[in-house]
Specification:
- The complex is a heterodimer of chains A (437) and B (527).
- By secondary structure, chain A is α/β, with parallel strands linked by helices.
- Chain A contains 19 helices and twelve strands.
- In chain A, the strands form three sheets. Chain A has a five-stranded mixed sheet. In chain A, strands 7-6-12-9-10 form a five-stranded mixed sheet. A two-stranded antiparallel sheet of chain A has the order 8-11.
- In chain A, strand 3 and strand 4 form a beta hairpin.
- Chain A is globular and about 75 Å long.
- The N and C termini of chain A lie far apart (52 Å).
- By secondary structure, chain B is an alpha+beta fold.
- Chain B is elongated and about 85 Å long.
- The C terminus of chain B is likely disordered.
- The chains are: A alpha/beta (437), B alpha+beta (527).
Amino acid sequence: MGYPHHPHQRETPILSQYFGDQEARTLDGWKKRGGYKALEKALGMPPGDIVNVVKESGLRGRGGAGFPTGMKWSFMKPGDGKPHYLCCNADESEPGTFKDRELMRWTPHALVEGCAIGAYAIGAETAYIYIRGEFTEPLYWMDKAVKEAYAAGIIGKNAMGTGKRIDVHVHKGAGAYICGEETALMNSLEGRRGNPRIKPPFPAVSGVFGMPTTINNVETLIASAPILLNGADWYKKMSLSSPKSTGTKLFSVCGNVQRPGTYEVTMGFPFKEFLYDLCGGPPHGRKFKAVIPGGASVPIQTMEEAEATLMDYEGFVAQGSMLGSGGVIVIDDAQSMVSVIARIARFFAHESCSQCTQCREGTAWTTKIMERIRDGQGTSEDLDTLLDIGEQMTGKTICVLSDSCAVPVASGIKKFRAEFEALIPGGRVHPVIAAVA
Amino acid sequence: MPETKMVNLTIEGRPVTVPDGTTILEAAKTAGILIPHYCYHPGLPVAGVCRMCLVEVEKAPKLAPSCATTVAEGQVVHIYSDKSLDARKGVLEMLLINHPLDCPICDQSGECELQDYTYQEGRADSRYREPKRFNPAEDFGGDVIYVPNRCILCTRCVRFMDDVAHEPTLNVSERGDRALIGKFEGRDMTHPWAANVIDLCPVGALLSKDFLNKARAWELDRASSICPNCTQGCNVIMETRENQLVRMRPRPNEEVNAFFMCDYGRLNYRWMNEKNRVELPMVRRGDALASTSWEAAITAAARVLNGKSVSVVASPMLSNEALFLLTQLMQGGSGVFRVTEGEEAPLPGVPDLALRRERAANVHGAEALGFKKTNDLFGSLKQGDVLVVAGEDLAGIDASALSRASDVVVISSVLPEAAKNASVVLPIANFSEEEGTVTNLRGRVQRFTQAKQAPGESRPSWLVLGDLLGALGKQSNFFLPSEVFAQLATSNKSFAGLSYDTIGFKGLPLADAPKSGPKTPIAVGAA
């Protein structure tokens, strides 16, 4: 893994300000940089006040769905006599997304602090950090940070000497995309097969071990610390656009750009400038063709759409896509869209948990057709069939993996139909079709 | 019991009122509509994975899985709207894309839910043009074979082993379209109740080795019956082909066996097909038994019995009716029976359900009617008594044990070796060949019906005994087993108030049976 770039002057590095700073990884270094001040402040506040500050700040879930964090925390009813749990979703398996990886690599103590604040706010004594199986380096740093924090009495039976108990456990996943889905994550954490659960009951009612549980993304939890220190207004003001999207957001950029990497910008930053200025534009001699702005499962944007986008939750939706996880995949004119989409479909077919019929069969069927078209063996009915399968895969299953596979295919056919059609006429007739016809 | 809140809703335009917490799928059943489904089974925790039971609920943003959605006041449910039909058609197409469509050689054909619903709601063709997935068939141990190509991954079998048998044996291995049902290493489907997964499987993926390639479903005749193989009295369907019993399957009865039956009972049906039967009534002529007419045989038996002290050795497989008439025959004599025993094997997920130690259907009925259980069948046989051997095969007993009897009358399907010197032999139907009732170990009286025809001139036990009593001048002749039962109900306190009509096909407890509530359904939503 490479080292991060120096922040661009138009970035707003708050969570990412210590990327590349070796010292920030240690407890002493982290404390020198103001670490654990927010936790100290939090432990002196009633949990309800913390929830209110976060609510007021407008912080929304950074994992993909964008659910208001304060509201999520407020679902955890205090005094129900049950143990509460906080789960930190560090499974970050969405293709093109690697912001949480960087956060955990460089600022592991920030996550320990975020978990402790979150756990205290929702009345939990235990927080689990469910970390992706492939993340060996972040796992090393997280393990180390948790041990240091325990040794220093920051977390444990008597967190920071306040008499409050906060345990943080790091749990390594076994490498399944679907375990990033919150209910599958809970199953996996319990030692079951990582299959999503039917909702309701929602995690806030019955989550890990059947107890009220809140699941938050790494970035969300880390962001709670500066919010507590600087106040909700400070965070709210960091928005260039919609008042519904506040603060800063980390975007991990990959694909055909000059400077891939993780960037932190305020909500509402113009996407066009982000791509051309911060990321350095397309490789020499090429042009951008399309962008998948929020990880592989969001609709593909054409460049016209992307260039008109303001980077916040509403801005991406207004331009035919979603903010998602902030994993920006940039595609230039040297790539075949069919090829790209076929590869994405294959990913989802591989990762389907196989519970729901439409997903198990649909993702694989989609992949087979996409790859056939890519290989020049498509037929004129294939596009209609793909769209219809996509329709069957949308909104009918337990979780949204199935939808996630259908979305790039449907948006790809809609926005780049000519590329598909160019591959179909003149293609050899598939031998199976020849046999049937 | 606390008052259950009732919920009113509309399903397909029909008003329905059901208890709060009922699922839409179960509520629709009360309106006479079966919503197509695969993974849902009332005896298993809800999985909600097949997505077949999707229905449209007004004001809901998405189609709802009716197996996992509980009813709400004022809900309006559309099962056959375009949207829900389209979704289910889509599921069916997806289920079939990797299915081999080998119905002509599949045992499940004719009783396959995939066939049924595809005919009912599916597409006539498939748009799938790609190669199909292939996995070889696997022996799962016990009576179970797995054919993964036909599997739709509804996970009913997995949930049965996990949540009902409490012996996790099966799992979903792999993911995506490579997924298949796997077996945990070192585990086999040898749990005493494991073969239930064959019935639970809605398609031809889990097959019975015993039934493999024996018959097509549409060639079978079916009769409601009771498993005769232990005192639990599981309700079953006996299936015959060409007058041969080829399969027994459980028939749901939440008071007795929920939806299940054990492998021992399921596979122990061949004795009802046995060929060494007595087919004609016989009387002794000198040294040999000679076949004769029923009239002559009944007359001969009545002559032997008339005025004598009678000792009865009965089989606990006989119906209440036959045993009752035998008591009428005893004239103050005694009646005994013996029963073979084996290991008890409970099904942990269902309360009070087990393969019982006593391996005969009517041990309780025999006791309720005054027969004594003993291992010494001839201990109370007095010198000069007439011995009536009714249904008991006298296996392992030497002919000398019967020597105190002045005469032996055999009323049985098979002539026991030890009773070769009988004066009269009256052939009767076996358990699968007649109608009657049996009483299970909790005192529940349950009806069974005739599944096949008795060979030769064999007659139902109650008819033979009725005629015999008539010839002795004791009882008017009976024309139906229900008439015998009516007589039983008037003369025996335990049976008071019961009749074939009230017993129906779910059974009723004896008047003095211990009260037992309905079996609590398996924890829905667990796991």
